[in-house]
Design a protein that fits this description.
By secondary structure, the protein is α+β, with helices and mostly antiparallel strands. The protein folds into 2 domains: 1-33; 37-141, Kinase associated domain 1, KA1 (TATA-Binding Protein, 2-Layer Sandwich), CATH 3.30.310.80. It has 6 helices and 5 strands. It has a 5-stranded antiparallel beta sheet, covered by helices on one side. The radius of gyration is 19 Å and the shape is elongated.
């Protein structure tokens, strides 16, 4: 039995090394677990981009508040690339990347990337709207209460 476990582990590790090709083992592991951000980073060139007259810290806070309100699921964060990787919701696992870049003390650039045009547009509209006006998503939070009243 011990010999079988040893061979099994060797096979799994060999598969991981062969599967990775030129990519790092870390990225391969993320891909196997379904939490890779490489696709979002590669799609950054086609991202929806907007610059806001808001400092980096406030912008980052507003982005996170908006994501909480719309019930997006944050599955990874990469501080090196200033990336917040989300799924559209807990049930919709379409990946979306939000890159937040400090341009100047009073300006921040936000880029929304996704392999799905619909998800990219949806998240960009909601996040950008909330950064500009905190009341933009007010109806999102009220929607759950309305549904609760209707179901009673």
């Amino acid at each position: 039995m011990r010999k079988f476990n040893y061979y099994f582990i060797i096979c799994i590790l060999s598969f991981a090394v062969l599967y990775s090709g030129c990519a790092s083992l870390k990225e391969t592991g993320k891909g196997i677990l379904g939490i890779s951000t490489k696709e979002l980073e590669n799609g950054r060139k086609d991202a929806i981009v907007k610059t806001f007259d808001v400092d980096y810290t406030s912008c980052n806070t507003r982005v996170r508040e908006a994501l909480k309100i719309i019930k997006a699921y944050i599955y990874a964060e990469d501080s090196k690339n200033n990336l917040i990787a989300i799924y559209v919701s807990e049930t919709d696992t379409t990946p979306v990347g939000i890159f937040i870049t400090n341009i100047s003390p009073a300006q921040t650039k936000v880029e929304v990337s996704s392999p799905s045009s619909f998800a990219k547009d949806l998240i960009a509209t909601k996040v950008f709207g909330y950064i500009e006006d905190k009341d933009f998503l007010k109806s999102e939070g009220d929607e759950e209460q309305t549904n609760l009243l209707i179901s009673l």
